[in-house]
Each structure stands twice: as C-alpha cells, then as structure tokens.
Amino acid sequence: MANHTYRLLPVAALGLAVIAAAAHLGWEYTHGGIRSHHLLNRADLPTISNAWGLLVLPVLGWLAGSVVARRASSAPSAARKALVGFLGALAAGSALSVAFVAGSESAAGAVFLGVLLSGLVFPTYRAEYLFGFVLGMTFVFGSILPALFGLLAVAISAAAHLLMWPAGMWVLRRARSQ
Fold it and tell me: In angstroms, how far is the first alpha carbon of the chain from the final one?
C-alpha cells in the first residue's frame, strides 16, 4: 500500500464500526428492544444501554484506524502486523461470545484468561486489539461491556510491556554490568 492509502484506514475502520453498531442495534430493536445491562450484573448498580455502542464502537474504530495509519506511514509492515493483531483479537472476542452463548462458563473463563495472559506476550494494549476484541463481542454483549473488559486487558498489557518488561531488562543489564 502506498503511504497515501493509509489515510483511508480511519475511514474504513469507522465505516466498519458504524455498520456493526447499527446492525446490532437494529437487530435488538426489532427483537424486543435495545437492551440495557447492569454494571457487574448487579441490579443495585446502574444500567448502561447498548445504544451507547453507536458512539463507543465508532470511536474505537476511528482511533484504531488513525493509530495504525500513523504507524504504517513510517513503517509499512506495521499495517500487516496491525491487521494480524486485529484479526486475532476479533477471533478471541468471537470465541468468548460463542462460549458464553453456548453456556460454557469454563470455556468463556478460559478464553478470557487467555486474552489476559496473551497481553503479557503480545502488545494487546494497542488500539487495533481493543477494537477487534470489542467488535468480536458486539453482537452478543453490545459494545460497552466488552469495551470495559477490554480496557482491563489493555491495562494489564500496557503495564507488562511499558513498565514490567523494561524494568526487568534494566535490572538484567545492571546485573550483567557488575
């Protein structure tokens, strides 16, 4: 892809996000109404409407497309790596959704634990991972709850890659130099 082509990534990701959010909400609207979910599945906590997905998912799409376009404009291989990360996260989110719909709590727990642990190895704190994960779960859970759980995975991955790994490498270098 030529460098100018990367400018289309935010628009393409935004379009995908709007279509997915509108399709999800259209389905819910025609099948009993747009759902709301209690935080932490507790009736004493506030509810969040899935309609917020019309804002959240496009924002995530635009952010992911913009960040990837910026990285790809200076390193074209970044677009391919981001696509692989997006597809992997999309698959993980879809697998988690399928496990939940199938009623397999143990499988859903294993997939989510795998998502958290993969963040220690892969830089899943990047926007394309969060967008793929949320998109993969949108049709089962809406966009809000997956975004909240995805932010937990982002925080763990960011802490590992931006704090723990560099600190560990610094300690190793210091130990080797003495």
Answer: 48
